[in-house]
Amino acid sequence: MAQGVGVRFNTSGVRVLKIEKTDDGMKINAVTAGLPGETFQSFLEGKDITFDDASVAFGLGPGDFLSSNLSNSDGLDDDSLKDQLRWEIERKILTDPSKYNFDYFISGGMGFVFAGRKNLIDDVIRTTENALTDVEPVALLNGCESAGELGDGTTMLISIEAGGISSVIVENGNPLKIDSLLINEPEIASVMAGLNFEAISGLDDPLVETLAEHVFKTVDRLTSFAEHKDNPAPGKFVLAGSGAYAGNIVKMIEDKYGIPVTISDPFAALSNDVTDINPELENLNAAFTPCFGLALRALEV
Q1: What are the extents of the domains in the chain?
Q2: Which of 23, 26, 86, 277 has the greatest CB tally within 10 Å of its CB?
């Protein structure tokens, strides 16, 4: 059976989700999280995880890539749109473009391009022959879509981590805006990376308020809730990432914007229970939504 692995790896933490496509649907084969070791390979060995013949997708998070987007108002074919996007993104690259990997995402009349530095992922990719890279916002979109969480109308997906906020605004299934915001909150980084539900949900109010302020900045910049009245107006939020469980952050977002907030549950789309594989990760499903999206991308290879 086909197997796909989604990996979120950076200096603050590691998450790995391995899924298998079976006749009965998809099931979890392995799921783990923790603080990184000296290398990604040493982390895998410590967790007794192998990739075998699986395809693997590694996610680039906030700060690890550049992005640009264009509305395809001229009706360009995909290749022409990619050429235009490549020209746009290279204007942002201050060094040699050959040092970057480029990836494109085209949907619903919008085109997006992402450029990730090769030196950030070379060591990780060497762990398997069947590897590709993706960016966290697109993985977030793929994960929520496969879990049936987009719905009708306009929805804003937000993945919250101590190192950054990844966001996608979707209208009737089509992405309108894709964004990534690098932040640095070392006081909560180890707690959120370790995925201890009691510790995350019990974070002190000032720390949760600081995290919520980063979310507010992202929402106000991308939507019409603040001064940018021409931006989209979401009718609901879907939260993912370990920060979705931080204290009363859900209520804080609901109180500020007055629209429903739900927490993503990517494992609802799978045929077995995460607690059967790793009981320590009970109640932390949303922390793996981007990894789920990455694993699905790997299954396409």
Answers
A1: 3-63+119-299, 65-118
A2: 26
Would you say the C-alpha torsion 213, 219, 220, 225 has a positive or negative sign? negative
Q: What is the pLDDT of residues 23-35, one digit of tens each?
A: 878 888 889 888 7
| pTM for the whole structure | 0.92
Q: Two tokens at 260?
A: 């429903």
CATH placement of domain 3-63+119-299: 3.30.420.40
Q: Which two tokens stand for residue 56?
A: 């693997």
Radius of gyration of the chain (CA): 18
206, 288, 132, 95 alpha-carbon torsion, rounded to 10°:
-10
CA distance linking residue 249 with residue 224, whole number of Å: 21
Of 34-43, 160-169, 177-186, the range with the lowest mean pLDDT is 34-43
Please identify which residue in the block is written with the tokens 């649907």: 25
Which of 118-122, 140-144, 161-165, 267-271 has the least mean pLDDT? 118-122
